[in-house]
């Protein structure tokens, strides 16, 4: 599937956000997924915290605007998020919610030091955190994982 141009989507997101008192922090389209995923990070114009109700209200308005504007063809998932909130994954639900997102894993190495690995989160089970590192699946034992943090997608 061809990647649609982001500029009209970003413009629509900004216009919708401004009408609700938000600012758009980023717009990312994962057109390689099935269905494709449009992820929009918003923050409040007054600097206060964005909560779930804020994300829901923006999602409703922007979703309707996207449908009217017919900027995306085919099925898609719209995800609204807030930058800087909860960027360290801790709970099992975090690892389920952010499956497929770019993460940085800080872990112990064999020599007792620390290393960092960046990849796409595939999941976490009782034994390991699983990442896709440039097409190679890596299982990192949970006992070696010090932190899993969401990162910005690479360009």
Q: Globular, elongated, flat, extended or rod-shaped: what is the shape? A: elongated
Mean pLDDT: 87
| β-strand amount | 35-45%
Largest sheet: 5 strands, antiparallel
Taking Cα atoms only, what radius of gyration do you get, to the nearest Å? Answer: 17 Å
Give an overview in words.
The protein has 155 residues and is α+β, with helices and mostly antiparallel strands. It has 3 helices and 8 strands, in the order H-E-E-H-E-H-E-E-E-E-E. Strand 2, helix 2 and strand 3 form a beta-alpha-beta unit. Helix 1 crosses helix 2. The longest helix has 18 residues. The model has no long low-confidence stretch (mean pLDDT 87).
Gist of the model:
With 155 residues, this protein is of the alpha+beta class. It has helices at 6-19, 52-69, 92-97; strands at residues 22-30, 36-44, 76-81, 102-108, 114-124, 128-133, 136-141, 145-150.
List keywords for this structure.
155 residues, alpha+beta, three-stranded mixed sheet, 25% helix
Write the layout of secondary structure elements.
Elements: H1 6-19, E1 22-30, E2 36-44, H2 52-69, E3 76-81, H3 92-97, E4 102-108, E5 114-124, E6 128-133, E7 136-141, E8 145-150
Parallel strand pairs: 2-3
Antiparallel strand pairs: 1-2, 4-5, 4-8, 5-6, 6-7
Helix pairs in contact: 1-2
